[in-house]
Amino acid sequence: MASFLYLMLFVVIAVNFTSALVWLRLIFLVRSADKILSFTTASLYGKFLFGQVMTSKFFRARSAMALGNPERDPVIRKVRGSSQYQTVEFVASLVKDLPLNLVPHMI
Fold this sequence. Notes:
mainly alpha, elongated
């Protein structure tokens, strides 16, 4: 019984750690797309992209953001066009549909 609880605890920690890594990687991609962005602005972009990547049946991203038209924004276009973003999307697709994922609700 105790080994099952430890296994479940490990799974919860692994899922949330992976989600946190996705968040941090998106912030890094935003910061590398435009070097002069402040951390606050990069955080707004990161929240928007994280919400887009992690939207699932358990988490719905906020629909209203003050970024303007995201499809025409040069920072978002650079981030989405990078090869590293494809990796981030893949990793996010592995954990976004798990009910144990708490990180998207905290960001």
